[in-house]
Amino acid sequence: MSTPLTHDEQLIAQSRSGSQDAYAALVQRYQRVVYATAYRITGNPHDAEDVAQETFVRAYFALDRFSPIRGGFPAWLVRIATNLSLTRLRRRRETPTEADERLPDLGPGPAEAAERDETREAVRRAVGELPDRYQTVVLLRFVQDMSYDEIAEEMGIPRNTVATWLRRALGLLEKSLGAVGPPGAAPARSAGNDIVSQIRVVGRIGR
Q: Which of 199, 61, 40 shows the shortest CA–CA distance to 130?
């Protein structure tokens, strides 16, 4: 006996068949969380609106590749919005404004800035290499600041599963990254906390 489709799965199936009303319903349901994701990362309402719009356009043309086995539909949208937001931030940093050029450089020195950027890039890369389900719970928990219960509802999984996936994800990140900072400066628990803080920073660059 086949498992009944969830409401999202029904709307996705109808959208794949060409129903614009079905996809509009999905957009209306998740536009808030997509916008919030983009705004938290870009810190700019105009950029967040652009990212949200592009997220839904890209998701529409990629519906055939969406699989609920790899996480719920909202989690998939969050991943798309996060990637687009981070890309926009990188482009923004590569294009200084006139105001940026007039301001004196009061930031860290070249060596410190390079080390900071290298650390952030390592964290971003490590998170991106996690299995999709682990990557999703990490982003929802530490970038979206969602509670375990909220993540469980968004992804359609038990709360205990959220906790298990987060624990495993952080374990993989610790193995991949080690302590984020001077070698030998922190024990395993502090290293895990430092990785979490770096994930939050990566998700909020530009605010």
A: 199
Q: What's the token pair of residue 68? A: 């609920």
Maximum mean pLDDT: which of 61-65, 139-143, 173-177, 190-194: 61-65
Q: How many residues does the chain have?
A: 207
Query: Going by C-beta distance under 8 Å and a sequence separation of 6 or more, which residues neighbour residue 8?
Result: 26, 29, 72, 73
Query: 0.85 exceeded by the pTM?
Result: no
Average pLDDT, the chain: 77
CB atoms within 10 A of CB 94: 7
